[in-house]
Amino acid sequence: MSIRLRLTLWYSGLLAIALVAFGVVIYGIVQNNAMSGIKDQLRRISQDTQVQITFPTIKLSGSVRTDIDFNTIYIQIVNYTPTIEGVVDEKTRNMYQTPQRPELTFEIPRQDALAQNKYRFAKQELNGFPFLILEKPLTYRGDIVGLLQVGAWTGREEQLLSQLRSILWISGAVGLIAAFLLGMFLSRKALMPINRVTEAAERIRSGSELGHRIPREKPNDEIGRLTDTLNAMLSGVERAYRNLEDSNAAQRRFVSDASHELRTPLTTIRGNVDLLEKIWLSDGAGRKELGEGESESGGPLENSPALTEADKRDMSLESIRDISDEARRMSGLVNDLLSLARADAGYRMEMERVALWPLAEEAARRASFLPRQAEWIVGPLDALAGVEVQGNRDYLLQLLFILIENGFKYTPSGSVRLYAGRSDGYVGLSVEDTGIGIHSEEVPHIFERFYRVDVSRGETSGTGLGLSIAKWIADMHRARFDVRSKLGEGTVFTVWLPILPPREMDGV
User: Fold this and answer.
1) Which of 439, 409, 433, 406 has its CA nearest to residue 419?
2) Quick one: how far is CA 324 from the chain centroid?
3) How far is C-alpha 237 from the geometric centre of its chain's CA atoms?
């Protein structure tokens, strides 16, 4: 939708609201003036009408005003005494059936809906004719025993109000259409300078230089301010291009760090493969090729006696274990890098309703099999009862495992505990350890890629990618992290997930 059309629609909408408000005021004034005379007449008639109460009947005393126009005024007496209970005792003759019209009877309200000594007005439509009725309670010794209903035919007034409604609707519609067309014309004239700005911006976009700027015509009006804003934006684009080299440098650092982390296990694997080769070439023809008592590159076999079969077996198994460990480490690193690559590429994981209690129990069960030195404690998890979140179950499990493995990794003694809590529409899953802790100055950096705190560097194996992946998973779930840590005492990682509303029951 173009700005021109939006402006016209806004203008037309405001005008429509003003016309509706004006019509409501005019209609209300005319309606009040048209009905006020009838209401005054009904009040006077009700005051002058004499009613005789003779239990169990209530009758007109016969002293009804003689100047009443009984072609438009109708009177009805309703009896509420216990033996009668809301029936018509008497009504004026013009309400009985005639060859020209059927019998008229006003609707009778409930006795408990009446307020003592207070009359009220009600609108009714009988046999297709509109009436305005004054209802006046009749009391005897403080109790409501009857009701006087004085009604007036309001056909002329209703016809007048109907014509007024038609006039207001037609005039309002015509005025709104005319205003819309006028608004389209005026908005076109007002937005012509913007078209010129657009044309200038197109010329800049199609060119190869970002140094061009849009010329200003009237810098003090809105178009001039828009031009200044666009020129500032172009300056920002120039700065962004200048910052591309910094981004590329950051990318190169990332690749360099990843290469370094991959090079370490590859070096170990290659060294162990070379060692295996030397072990099994250390006898017979192998020693003749390499030279008696020496290896191609020296090492543990240099100047060593011939190895026994048991020595070969032990050394081979040790090398195989090293190769397996480094292969697992490299596989984990590759998987972490793949997850981060997906995050950089804007990967959107599939989401569904996930019950958190079974998920937390599954994570706790699997975590009990992880290698660890700390005690593993689960609970309390009562806050997860009946809680569901919008998420991906596999990735949420991965997030919990990253936090739990970190807890085991940096807790040489003590305990690691998983528990849950709730707060303001969020549910929190917390992993608390009593390990080495994190310095307060390093907490803001722990989610950066390849970042490892100084206290753990060189002492604990790792790549520094786990928490980066956990942060990405949390962001995909619109969750937030809360980290509390004290050096030498331990760390608490809490991920707060938004709670979904309960499912609606079928058939409810």
Assistant:
1) 433
2) 47
3) 32
**Which amino acid, 303?**
N
Question: Are 485 and 408 within 8 A, CB to CB?
Answer: no
**CB atoms inside a 10 Å sphere around CB 450:** 16
Q: What is the pLDDT of residues 110-136, one digit of tens each?
A: 887 787 778 889 888 888 889 999 988
**What pLDDT, in 10s, does the model give residues 142-201?**
788 888 889 888 888 888 888 988 988 888 888 888 888 887 777 777 777 677 677 766
Q: Where are the beta strands (DSSP E) in 96-155?
A: 120-126, 129-140, 143-153
- Whole-model pTM above 0.70? no
Q: What gap in Å lies between CA 408 and CA 435, rounded to an integer?
A: 8
User: CA-to-CA distance for 319 and 327, rounded, in angstroms?
Assistant: 12
Where in the chain do CATH 3.30.450 domains reside?
A: 7-161
DSSP 399-438: HHHHHHHHHHHT-SSSEEEEEEEEETTEEEEEEEE-SS--
What span, in angstroms and rounded, lies between the C-alpha atoms of 38 and 457?
A: 95
For residue 356, is it left (φ>0), alpha (ψ between -120 and 50) or beta? alpha
The DSSP letter of residue 124 is E
Q: What is the mean pLDDT of the segment spanning 263-285?
A: 72
Q: Determine if residue 480 is left, alpha or beta; phi over 0 gives left, psi from -120 to 50 gives alpha, anything else beta.
A: beta
User: E-assigned strands of 106-219?
Assistant: 120-126, 129-140, 143-153
Look up the CATH number of domain 352-498.
3.30.565.10
**Preceding peptide of 215 cis, ω within 30°:** no
- Spell out the SS3 assignment of 328-377: HHHHHHHHHHHHHHHHHCCCCCCCEEEEHHHHHHHHHHHHCCCCCCCEEE
- Between helix 466-476 and helix 393-409 the angle, nearest 10°, is 150
Cα–chain-centroid distance for residue 505? 22
Q: Nearest Cα to 495, choosing from 405, 399, 414, 357? A: 399
Token reading at 11: 């203008």
Domain range 7-161, its CATH number among 3.90.1720, 1.10.260, 1.10.10, 3.30.450:
3.30.450
Pick the CATH number of 246-344 from 1.20.58, 1.10.287, 1.10.10, 3.40.1350: 1.10.287
Nearest to 429 by CA among 470, 465, 466, 462: 470
Q: Which residues of 324-339 are buried (b: 16+ CB within 10 A; e: fewer)?
A: eebeebbeebeebbeb
pLDDT digits (tens, 9 = 90+) for 410-427: 888 899 999 999 988 899
Q: Residue 23: left if φ>0, alpha if ψ -120 to 50, beta else—which one?
A: alpha
Single-letter amino acid, residue 158 = E
